[in-house]
Specification:
Belongs to the cyclin family. This protein is mainly alpha-helical. The protein has 3 domains: 92 residues; 108 residues, Cyclin-like (Cyclin A, domain 1, Orthogonal Bundle), CATH 1.10.472; 126 residues, Cyclin A, domain 1 (Orthogonal Bundle), CATH 1.10.472.10. The chain is built from 18 helices and no strands. Helix 2 packs antiparallel against helix 3 and helix 7 packs antiparallel against helix 8. The chain is globular and about 80 Å long. It starts with a helix and ends in an 8-residue tail after the last helix.
C-alpha cells in the first residue's frame, strides 16, 4: 500500500522543483498557494523516508523555501534600485539642462565704469568729512500776508515773487549817480530847480505821487545817457512829466496844457518830438517800481499808521530833490523814510517785521537817513514847492513838527552810528 503510494507520486517532486523555479521567477506568488504545496511535498518526503529509510528532507524543504524568499527579496531590491537610479538619473539630466545653459557675460561701458569709480571716491571723501553743525536762523517776523488770502487785490500768494521782481527792476531802472559829470551846461542845482517846478505842476493837477516819482526817474535816466543844453532842460522835464502821467494817471493832461504850463516857450510838436526821443532812448522801459510801492509794503508792518506814512512821503520826495540820493534804490529810500518818520513820532524800535517787510536792517538804513537829515538841517526851504506842499493841512502840516524833532533825530542817529556824520 505504501509502495504503491510512493510509485504513484513521482510528480510532486518535480512539482516542488517547478514550484521553486516559479517562486524564484515571480515575486508576487500567493503565500497561501505556496504554503499548501509545501505541506503536500513535505508529507510525501516523510512517507518515502519512512518506507525506504531515507534521511528526512524537512531541512531541505526549509532551505529551499528560505533560498526562494532570499532570491525574491534580492531581485526585488535590485528592481527597486534600478527604478531609483532611473528617477535620479532623470533629475540629474533635468538639473543639467538648467545648469549647463551658458550665460553671456554682461559687458559694461568703460564710461559707466569710470563714473561708478568716481562716484565711489566721492562717497568715500564725503564720509571722511565731518559735517559742521549750523544753527538755522529763527524767524522772528510774522506772516502778515496770510490774512489777505481772500483779497484778490493783495495777491498774497504771489506777493513774495512780486517783491523779488521789484528788487530786480529797481536795479535795472536805476539812473547813474555821476551823470552830471558828463553834462557840459547843466548842474545839480539846475536839476533841483527843474524837479521843484515839476512838483509844483504835479500839485496843480492834483495827481498821484507815483506820477511825480516816475517823471523824476525818467528825467534822470535820460540825462544819464544824453547830453542836453540848458535851453532844452525844461522841455525834457515837460516831456518826462507827460510820459509819467500817461503811464500812471487815468486822465493825463493834454499837450496843449503842457504848452500853457511852459508859457508857450515850446510848441506841441516840440513836446511830442521830445517825448518820442526820450522813450526811444530809454527803450520804452517804464518799469521802475518807485518808492511808494515799497512804502506800502513796509507800512503794513507798521499797522498802516497814517501819520508815519505821511511823514515818510515827505522824506521820499526829499530823496527826489537831493542829488546824493539819485543812485539809491527806491526800496532803500522808502525804508529810510519810514524809519525817520517813526522816530519823529517817538517810535524808535525797528521791529523784525519792519526789517523783513522793508528788506533792510537798521544799520543799512543809517547812511541814507543821514543824507535826508542833512537836507533838513542845512537848508529846509531850498525847494519852495516841497516846503509849501507839506505845510498844508492835507498833509498834517508834517513840515512844521519835523523841525521840533530834528535835533532828537540827530542825537538818535549819532547814538546808533557815532561816525556817520564825519564827512560826506
Amino acid at each position: 500500500m505504501v509502495s504503491k503510494v510512493v510509485r504513484a507520486r513521482p510528480a510532486p517532486a518535480s512539482g516542488i522543483a517547478k514550484h521553486v523555479r516559479g517562486a524564484s521567477v515571480s515575486t508576487t506568488a500567493s503565500s497561501k498557494t505556496g504554503t499548501e504545496e509545501g505541506s503536500v511535498a513535505e508529507k510525501v518526503v516523510l512517507k518515502r523516508a519512512a518506507t525506504k529509510g531515507v534521511p528526512s528532507t524537512s531541512s531541505f524543504a526549509a532551505k529551499a523555501e528560505t533560498k526562494t524568499r532570499t532570491t525574491a527579496a534580492v531581485k526585488g531590491k535590485t528592481l527597486l534600485k534600478h527604478e531609483i537610479d532611473d528617477v535620479e538619473e532623470g533629475h540629474r539630466v533635468f538639473k543639467r539642462r538648467h545648469v549647463d545653459i551658458p550665460e553671456e557675460p554682461i559687458q559694461q561701458d568703460e564710461s559707466q565704469i569710470e563714473a561708478d569709480r568716481i562716484a565711489a571716491e566721492l562717497i568715500e571723501a564725503d564720509a571722511k568729512v565731518v559735517p559742521e553743525f549750523k544753527e538755522e536762523p529763527v524767524e522772528l517776523w510774522d506772516d502778515l500776508d496770510a490774512g489777505d488770502w481772500d483779497d484778490p487785490f493783495m495777491v498774497s500768494e504771489y506777493v513774495v515773487e512780486v517783491c523779488k521782481y521789484w528788487k530786480k527792476l529797481e536795479v535795472e531802472t536805476l539812473p547813474q549817480g555821476d551823470y552830471m559829470n558828463r553834462q557840459a551846461e547843466i548842474t545839480w542845482e539846475h536839476r533841483g530847480i527843474l524837479v521843484d517846478w515839476i512838483l509844483q505842476v504835479h500839485a496843480r493837477f492834483n495827481m498821484l505821487q507815483e506820477s511825480f516819482l516816475l517823471s523824476v526817474n525818467v528825467l534822470d535816466r535820460f540825462l544819464s545817457k544824453r547830453q542836453i543844453s540848458i535851453g532844452r532842460l525844461q522841455l525834457v522835464g515837460l516831456a518826462s512829466f507827460l510820459i509819467a502821467t500817461k503811464f500812471e494817471e487815468t486822465y493825463a493832461p493834454s499837450v496843449a496844457e503842457m504848452v500853457t504850463l511852459a508859457d508857450k516857450q515850446y510848441t506841441a510838436d516840440d513836446i511830442l518830438k521830445a517825448e518820442r526821443y526820450i522813450l526811444k532812448t530809454l527803450n520804452w522801459d517804464l518799469r521802475s517800481p518807485g518808492p511808494m510801492n515799497w512804502l506800502r509794503r513796509g507800512s503794513k508792518a507798521d499797522h498802516s499808521e497814517t501819520k508815519a506814512r505821511t511823514i515818510a512821503k515827505y522824506l521820499i520826495e526829499i530823496g527826489c530833490l537831493e542829488w546824493r540820493l539819485v543812485a539809491v534804490v527806491p526800496s532803500l529810500i522808502s525804508a529810510a523814510a519810514l524809519w525817520l518818520a517813526r522816530l519823529t513820532l517817538g517810535r524808535e524800535e525797528w521791529t523784525p517785521n519792519l526789517a523783513h517787510y522793508t528788506t533792510y536792517s537798521e544799520e543799512e538804513i543809517l547812511p541814507t537817513a543821514k543824507i535826508m537829515l542833512e537836507y533838513i538841517l542845512t537848508n529846509p526851504i531850498q525847494h519852495e514847492s516841497l516846503y509849501k506842499k507839506f505845510s498844508s493841512r492835507r498833509y498834517f502840516r508834517v513840515r512844521r513838527p519835523l523841525f521840533l524833532f530834528v535835533a532828537i533825530l540827530t542825537l538818535v542817529v549819532c547814538r546808533l552810528a557815532p561816525g556817520c556824520w564825519r564827512g560826506h
